[in-house]
Amino acid sequence: MAYPAGLKYTKDHEWIDADAGSGKVGITDYAQQQLGDVVYIELPEVGAKLKAGQSFGTIESVKAVSELYAPVAGEVIEVNTSLKDKPEVVNADPHGSWMIVLKFSDPSEVDTLLDASQYDDLVK
Amino acid sequence: MVPFGGWDMPVEYSGIVNEHMAVRERAGMFDVSHMGQIEIAGSQALDAVQRISCNDASKLAVGQAQYSGLLTPEGTFVDDLLVYRLASSHFMLVVNASHIATDYAYIAEGIKPAGDAVAVDCSARYALIAVQGPKALAIIQPLTGVDLASMKYYWFAHGEFAGVRGTVSRTGYTGEDGFEIFVPPQQADKVWLALMQSGQPFDMIPCGLGARDTLRLEAAMRLHGNDIDTTTTVLEADLGWIVGWKKADFVGADVLRAQKAAGVPRKIVGIEMVERGIARGGYEMFAGDVRVGAVTSGTQTPYLKKAIGMGYVTVAHSAIGTELEIDIRGRRVKARVVAMPFYKRAT
Questions:
Q1: Which of A116, B2, B55, B114 could form a disulfide with B68 if both were Cys (CB 3.0 to 4.6 A apart)?
Q2: What percent of the residues of chain B are helix, what percent strand, and what percent coil, each to the nearest 5?
Q3: CB–CB of B49/B57 below 8 Å?
Q4: A64 vs B166, which has greater pLDDT?
Q5: What whole-number percentage of chain B has pLDDT above 90?
Q6: What is the architecture, at CATH level 2, of domain A8-123?
Q7: pLDDT above 70 covers what percent of chain B?
Q8: For residues B29 and B131, is the Cβ–Cβ distance under 8 A?
Q9: Is A40 in Cβ contact with B210 (below 8 Å)?
Q10: Which residues of chain A does B277 touch, with a Cβ-Cβ cutoff of 8 Å?
Q11: Mean pLDDT of chain A
């Protein structure tokens, strides 16, 4: 699967789809492949304030538990509650399955993340 | 691929859920060649096996197998195993890969008083292929002259499989009907490929360690290293049925007899999550503020689609229906004690 050019990526295998002051956050195709069948996702409450790299939830596959990390600092302004009952969509469409929307504390932080080709090199 | 008992083994081929469902609904094939085989032979072989294996091997006819344990003097598990009676004075013990060396040393020492019996580690002589699922019989039968339909559960026979000499037993670690085929490693690929071809019309797929673990957990089969080990007795593991109580003596007998008379302080139970969350091995279990035990295995199971697990709790909290809380990474989540096995195939 190609990594969409419009997204930014972290070394912890999250992506962020950033607009001016906020962005949707999910996990990459590489991450879902490593996890295998996703069966459970635990997400924060709206209003949670996160530092860059701070855990905002957990994702579990049949075989393992993984933390989810905030790509940049910000406040959670929306949570994709539909993932609660359909966590398996993360396997089917990782780059289309957002988990939270973060309102950035410092929008310039987004520029420090990896672009698609840098991320592709990382997981090759 | 992951390192496992000295082998590199696949966790999954096409996905744990996919492989798990294939075994429950059709068939799946596992390369379990990592399992060890230790043979015991000699005129006193039966006496030798009786000393080191807790089940009663005298009940085995030639061609029959049984589940058993190699125990410490405290009645806890050095390993669990299958004992095959190959001939009246010749047995094959199938043991866990990671314990072959320990088991062999334990067995060689333990059988000395029996006299004329010798133990040989034959692990390198056998590859082992497990075909599991409702279609397993239909898939293997065209490749062998052994009449599989008349073979009873936990019996075995010798024959040819895709032209390769070997042994087949009606055994497995999935809770499903199925067979395990022992063949020489040099020809194992030939048998594997022939089975893949024979399995094609049934949509049989290869399965890895991940599905092996979720399948055995649904069937409540204990995994040595998780659910049973040198800290858990046979009775605490609720496996009293594998003890040959009428045997004269075996390692661990004194402790087990005493524990049987007095009752166990704790025992293994099945648990099912009541609230959202997945219990994993090592998580602690509570009744109110009191810690009553810990989870030994747990997952979200693909077939039952529930979060289930096993673990040891104090006997006072082991009754079916007892409500417990599990500490899932700092959060208390409600669970309930349920009957095992979680899954039982329709017969």
A1: B55
A2: 25, 35, 40
A3: yes
A4: B166
A5: 96
A6: Beta Barrel (2.40)
A7: 100
A8: yes
A9: no
A10: 40
A11: 95
